[in-house]
Design a protein that fits this description.
Layout: E1 14-17, H1 20-30, H2 40-45, H3 58-65, H4 69-75, E2 83-92, E3 101-115, E4 121-132, E5 138-149
Antiparallel strand pairs: 1-3, 2-5, 3-4, 4-5
Organism: Dictyobacter halimunensis
Protein name: FAS1-like dehydratase domain-containing protein
Domain FAS1-like dehydratase: 6-140
Length: 150
């Protein structure tokens, strides 16, 4: 059973520098050939200041930039080897472009236990990460639901 006293715990902030090449590579990998993600000229012709990140790019910020997330979760008693990704949502507050340096702070905002099958239970956790850019301007909020089979 999930320890609800852990709700409200924030992890150490992490930084991620948005790289033009990574935007390009990610969109190649997912098959998104929209030219605004591959060419500054195409992005500017479409009204952007530079190549924007694509809508689901923030999923990777935690993997590429937050190297202590797993240990932070383990410190809360979460068995990271039993995590399944539930869902994710993004709230964009400002454009994010190459060379932006983002600082993210993740907080456990909800947690509950539900019955599972075979005598197991499921802990369902909601993590929120708030990002600011190098100018301390809020640019992005993300929420992710994680399911942990206990």
């Amino acid at each position: 059973m999930f320890d609800t006293s852990k709700i409200g715990t924030s992890f150490a902030p992490f930084t991620y520098e948005v790289q033009r090449g990574k935007i390009h590579e990610l969109n190649l990998a997912i098959g998104d050939m929209n030219p605004i993600y591959h060419s500054r000229e195409a992005a500017q012709a479409a009204g952007y200041a530079d190549v924007p990140i694509s809508p689901t790019t923030p999923t990777l910020f935690n993997f590429w930039g937050n190297r202590t997330r797993g240990s932070s979760m383990a410190d809360l008693g979460i068995d990271v080897s039993r995590i399944l990704h539930g869902e994710e949502e993004y709230e964009y507050l400002a454009p994010i472009y190459p060379d932006d340096v983002l600082t993210g702070t993740t907080t456990l905002i909800d947690g509950k236990t539900r019955p599972g099958s075979g005598g197991h239970s499921l802990d369902i956790l909601t993590l929120e990460t708030r990002y600011v850019n190098q100018h301390n301007q809020p640019v992005l909020n993300t929420r992710a639901s994680l399911v942990i089979r206990t």
